[in-house]
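Table S2 (text version). Query chain:
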Amino acid sequence: MAHLPEFHESSVPAIRLLQGAVYADDSKTWDLLMTNRSRLETYFGRVGLIMVVDEPEGFAYLRQIEEEELPDGYDGMPKLIRRSRLGYDVTLFSVMLRDELRRFEEQNVDSERCVVDTSELQTRMMELLPDTEDEVRVRRKFDQLMVRAQELGFLRKLNTQPVAYEIRPIIKARITAERLDELKQQFQIHAETIAAQNQLPS
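Corresponding structure-token output:
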């Protein structure tokens, strides 16, 4: 049998953080995280990770320490978390979700969760795409983006009928309010450029 150190309860939230974001609605893991917060921050700090805890929003996640933040001796450490580019379609879909969450937070004061159904998201997605897009292709693309958004932790499928999804607040860590406005402007310019090109005589 392998020799392992004595078990410590902080291992539970540590593993969950390495898997993705931890939310306050997972009360058991969240309580362990908060109880062992200092210990976890030290543990992850040794391998170049920062544990970000947003108590008002009720979530925590890990991020790689940026190069300009690295103290002496850490500059040669390999990166555990690499920030990947999302690609055009995934970014567009993520911006749509982030915008939906912002709209929800501005209009709803009684509900804590931003819940949307599939048809709502599909309608919003089709509004953002050029009229030249084939509907069958759009639906296929939409299904793929829904899966990707769940992999990223931006969406969580709820056990409801009809099927509904919660837009998770972790998306605000990836797309800030300022960045959201920048991306929306970029997509608007792109859409106007495509529309103008389609109107040019052949």
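Notes on Table S2: Residues 99 and 180 are 7 Å apart (CA to CA). The chain has a mean pLDDT of 84.
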